[in-house]
Amino acid sequence: MINIPTIKKLIEDEGHVFVSSSQEQGSFGCVIFTHLKGHENYKYAIKVFDVDDGSKKNCSQEKIQECQKEARALKILSHKNVVAYHSEKQLGLFYFIIMEMCQSSLHVWSQSNQNIIQDSLFYSIARQILDGLDYIHNKDWILRDLKPQNILINQEVEKIKIKLCDFGAARYYPKQINPKSTNCFGTLNYMPPEVIKEIFLQNHKLKQTPQGDIWAYGICLLSIGKPILNFNDYIKKNWQAPYTPLLKTKSNFSRVRIKRSSPQSC
Fold first, then answer.
1. pLDDT tens digits for 120-158?
2. What CATH homologous superfamily does 9-100 map to?
3. Pick among 3.40.190.170, 1.10.260.40, 1.10.510.10, 2.60.40.10: CATH of 104-265
4. Which residue is catalytic, options 13, 119, 145, 233?
5. Does 134 qualify as catalytic in the annotation?
6. What is the pTM of this model?
7. I want to staple 106 with a disulfide (CB 3.0 to 4.6 A). Which of 93, 120, 141, 151 is the partner?
8. In contact, 102 and 151? CB cutoff 8 Å
């Protein structure tokens, strides 16, 4: 658990930005919202990673490299529907990725929106997510963890602008390489059946492909249509978390579930 006051002091002691608020913490660390001192219109989100090696004195080079991989993906993937990279730095036992700030996530927005989404708005959201995803795939990257929590929004009057974010699980796979990973990344609710099957078979060479992102994209669209489909209630009643050694070290999976109903019962 990251100590927010400590992070706030580290950032503000740099002398350029003021911390305005913080988001709830995730498995990686936390997100801090800031603006330039004297320029409140220049706002940034800072993703904070704890890179302590456990000694409380030294940094883990492995953790730093993972942070740098995520920052590299953001730098390379420049698109109107991908959150914009600004900079990165290490301070003490923490690593910071500074990026474009957005108003909310698609998950929070859809949870607070009690009305049925109008067709035109739904199509706009669907098209923007797909545009971003198509760009990422054309650059030979795979997200591996597309979900509403990782889709950010900026709302202007009746228009919504979509930004894909969180590239911690993203990987670069040139088309000539058959993508296989020794570790499974992602959230089970949004994984395709063939990947879930390999998890249960404890296959240590899991194949995660662009097609898996497309499956997750479809589930994202179902989830924001919940006033019609009651998607989240269905998940709570019909999905449960599996146990497998491939997942036990991934804190990201502590809250996820996998479908247990037979196709005939859906």
1. 889 999 999 999 999 999 999 999 999 999 999 998 877
2. Phosphorylase Kinase; domain 1 (3.30.200.20)
3. 1.10.510.10
4. 145
5. no
6. 0.80
7. 151
8. no
